[in-house]
């Protein structure tokens, strides 16, 4: 099956990811922070090294790296913790994932917060002048931005927006689920308070291991509680980082795989990986655009994108289209992609779109299979 669903989970992974996880499972095992014996001690070295590699990747050695099972849990920890500390006025883009919007929706329904969308034009331009006016009218306490949209791949101008947010004293949260390890981002800059990464997407690692980067001096209240293998007699969560937010048993085999994938990314170079994905996206755009019954969604010349392309098929619903591609051995994602606000903005709500997403491993065979499938669909319309 030709795989065009990398925005959900990248596939394949670098070979080193498979080998390192298999080796660990067969010959090491053990839990991190749960013993002084050899296996546990050696695992500490891998965990520490992975934290260091993530800090290197994001250019932020002075910031803290926290591991969590998913980006969704990471976002909940950050957003709920900040709201519990009194944040009221919260700004988001139209392209946020349900991990953000459902969390905010819950607290907005309780009357505790006010959520406002940053102004973006119909031409996908983040209007900084209008955004500045929005901040002036209602001072932001928290600004959350998806670095790259999981629906159309649009890369947001996070540096400009976060700099402006900081002028008003806002806390900033960057969702890098679709960009970490692909779009080079210097998180050492002071206007980045929190940044969330998903190990199984553009970091090319396994599922079940993600996390966030944060300023070490930020006093964030915990929203999850449990064992840490540290200060066990204390019934409060430890104040120290990362223990304060790493509750329960860490996914050690996932960290081993993530360590291997980040090492591979650092060896290849982010820019080289991004160039390959950009080339594959261009090939995908050219292929899809060659069919009259396909219309692209949210693709504007001159904008920056990751390897995600959404489209519509004339006279065919997105759900039906998904079945058509599946029958022809093409993996795509259809529907709302857990981002209903984006589809409302793009006027593709409620049916959604057909989403194709490439990565650096997408090859000519994948595109040939996709072309064969598209030709077959065209012949049967």
What does this protein look like?
With 381 residues, this protein is an alpha/beta fold. The chain folds into two domains: 2-11 and 270-372, Aspartate Aminotransferase, domain 1; 15-268, Aspartate Aminotransferase, domain 2, CATH 3.40.640. Helices cover 39% and strands 14% of the residues. It has a seven-stranded mixed beta sheet, with helices on both faces. Strands 9-10-13-12 form a four-stranded antiparallel beta sheet, with helices on one face. Strands 1-11 form a two-stranded parallel sheet. Helix 1 packs antiparallel against helix 7 (252-268). The two termini are 22 Å apart. The model has no long low-confidence stretch (mean pLDDT 94).
Q: Report the radius of gyration as a whole number of Å.
A: 21 Å
Query: Mean pLDDT, as a whole number?
Result: 94
**N-to-C terminal Cα separation, in Å?**
22 Å
Strand percentage, roughly?
5-15%
Count the strands?
A: 13
Q: How many domains comprise the coordinates?
A: 2
Number of helices: 11
Structural class of the helices, strands and pairings? Answer: alpha/beta
Helix % is 25-40%
As for the CATH topology of the largest domain, it is Aspartate Aminotransferase, domain 2
CATH architecture of the largest domain: 3-Layer(aba) Sandwich
Largest β-sheet summary: 7 strands, mixed
Oligomeric grouping of the chains: single chain
Write down the overall geometry.
globular
Highest-level CATH class of the largest domain? Alpha Beta
Low-confidence stretches: none
